Amino acid sequence: MKKYLFFLLCPLFLLAADCNDSEVQPVETGTLELNFKPAFGTDPLVMYARAYPYEAGVKVKWQLFRFYLSDISIDHKDKAMQAGKTIIKDIELIDFEAIQSDLQVKDGITITFDKVPVDDYQAILFGVGVSKKLNETNPGFYAPGHPLGDNYWSAALGYVFTKIEGNADKDGDDNFESKLTFHAGGDPYYRKVNFEKDFTIKPNETTRLNFEVDLRAVLVRNQNDFLDFRKVTIDHTTKPEIATFISDNLVNAITLQ
Amino acid sequence: MERAVSIFFTIALISTVAINCVRNPLLQIPYTPTPVTLDELERIPRMHIPAHNPLTTEGIALGKKLFFDPILSFDSTFSCSSCHQPERAFADSKAVAIGIRLRKGRRSSPSLLNIGYHYKGLFWDGRAVTLEEQSLHPIQDSVEMGSRLEQVEKKLQQHSDYPVLFRKAFGIIHKNHITKDLIAKALAQFQRTLISKNTKFDQVQRGTAQFTAAEQRGFALFFDTSDTLPHSECGHCHVDPLFTTLEFHNNGIQQATNLNFSDLGRGAVTNNRFDNGKFKVPTLRNIARTAPYMHDGRFRTLEQVLQHYESGGHPAENVSPNVRKLHFTERDRADLIAFLNTLTDSLQLN
Fold first, then answer.
1. Residue B4: pLDDT above 80?
2. Between chains, do A234 and B42 touch, taking CB under 8 Å as contact?
3. Secondary element (H or E) of residue A112
4. CA distance A64 to chain B (A)
């Protein structure tokens, strides 16, 4: 009986020893910060207080500019060491509503990712909007304060990806009486963007990438192709061409410095 | 010898406990709180229940008793429910709150239904972050209940029932352990149970009821879902199922130059001038029961509210861009109100 017990236990001991040998070493990590500063053309974008010249003699003041980023990923430089890309966050909301002074523009909005694997990277990628998978969820999936706890359109069963709100002075009387509301959302308006840049995550150190987001570039492609506030002041993705215009422009309005 | 000493001390300990139990009847009452799980609203973030104040049957019962008991007010004439009446969706019918000795407040009493979901700030101006913090404000406010918290603690400690209820809810071992913190916790627990989720709107969403033609058209107007109907822009701020985003906005009801509003609202809390004149977007659930409307109760009817929004409101630098001139027909107005009436539920307190 003892002999059988020996043969029964032997493989277990071997297996246990093997487990100890192949114990996963902890991956070294560092911190990655992404900083977003809002601009309107060449000017810093300050909500509420500041008026900006727009096309066709119109002046504008802004109150809200927010959009989602999905599947924020970083691309390893040495593919032999690490396969492909690492997703560091599935969703973030970039909300410039509280940026109401030059000082706040200078600080921008920073999102911080701890425990990013130490490595050399060659690009950062993300989706602008809410990815299809997450857009099938609703705020009931999340805790209070989660980025996807808000901005839900129940009638459309999806999230508003981008919100732009402000006021326009169309006749030069300095009364910004024309209300501007542009909300874009829905799977057809999800865009992906890839920024090629070499950067390194070092152990226990912080690496920062600085982005600028130009709201003017979201609304104006050139002097002949822009959202004309004399003709349109509101859209809730009811006119697909406006949501397409905003979504296509937004990816180009984000630049990595 | 050692054994004798041990027996002596054991007997002494048991005797002390027994004597304490006789002297302090609270210790004879078992402390076995029963956990409660809420039947929550769907499609919104789950209610945050702080770890230090889990919901229990005993805590909720205590909070309910306190909520309806005038003992919390300075002269024991006025309870939380004086302004937050169940039959009026936990609001009242006054333009602004009237407190003890008929003292007039500045703002109306907001509905408390679904208040447990309000994680972006409580009161019209968001000055309290949690329900535990909020609960103590009206008790001390000179135009509401006008008490001092030490006075309230003392009254409850000397009461014939409350020490037992606090023992059952929070396990106090002496009546002097009734504190403002436990009062706040009990009131918060009760308020978290005030969930409205059985309106006709909810039933339609669940597929157990159908809108009338007018209600359906009002729904489309409200949420801007039709290309052929005028847009009302209501759904930007009154997002379902709470029918509020919990955000703070200036909806253009106050007239002011340079943002110097008579009531600064959110601006008085944040000291940000662009928050002046902003107030929390109120829920529209049970709106038919909560007239008059707005933070100062200036509109007596829903028709007046619609009229205000159709006008686009008073201009100011920080008026929400979603408050803009609208063009409704008589039928549009009637259908919008028909839809708003589907937001009334039949929440009854046991």
1. no
2. no
3. strand A109-117
4. 9
Q: Indicate the range of A18-22, A238-242, B223-227 predicted with least confidence.
A: A18-22
Ramachandran region of residue B90, left (φ > 0), alpha (ψ -120 to 50) or beta?
left
Report the half-sphere exposure of A154 (CA within 13 A, side-chain side).
24
The answer to whether the CB of A256 falls within 8 A of the CB of A124 is: yes
Q: What is the 3-state secondary structure (H, E, C) of B37-86?
A: CCCCCCCCCCCCCCCCCCCEHHHHHHHHHHHHCHHHCCCCCCCHHHHCEH
| Residue A110 β-bridge partners | A35
> What SS3 class is residue B311?
helix
Q: In this predicted model, what pLDDT tens digit does every residue of B188-241 receive, in sequence order?
A: 999 999 999 999 999 999 999 999 999 999 999 999 998 899 989 999 999 999
Q: ipTM value of the model?
A: 0.88
Residue with tokens 């599935």: A90
Interface test with B, best of A135, A153, A169 (most B CBs within 10 A): A153
Q: b/e map of A170-199 (b: 16 or more CB within 10 Å)?
A: beeeeebbbbbbbbbbbeebbbeeeeeeeb
pLDDT mean across residues, chain B: 92
Residues of A in contact with B324 (CB under 8 A): 179, 181, 233-234
Cβ pair A145:B323 closer than 8 A = no
Distance from CA of A166 to the nearest CA of B (A): 6
Q: What are the residues whose beta carbons fall under 8 Å from the beta carbon of A74, sequence distance 6 or more?
A: A32, A85, A86, A88, A116, A121, A123, A124, A125
Q: Which residues pair with A182 in a beta bridge?
A: A164, A235
| Chain centre to alpha carbon of residue B166 | 22
Give me the amino acid identity at B99.
G
Rounded to whole angstroms, the Cα distance separating B141 from B147 reads: 7
Residue B141 exposed, middle or buried by CB count within 10 Å (0-12, 13-18, 19+): middle
- What pLDDT sits at residue A219? 98
Cα(B219)–Cα(B226) distance, rounded to whole angstroms? 10
Phi-psi region of A210 (alpha: psi -120 to 50; beta: other; left: phi over 0): beta
Token digits for A13?
């001991």
Q: How far is CA A140 from CA A144, A157, B240, B248, in A?
A: 9, 12, 12, 22
Residue whose C-alpha is closest to residue A219's, from A53, A98, A2? A53
Alpha-carbon distance A144 to nearest alpha carbon in chain B (angstroms): 5
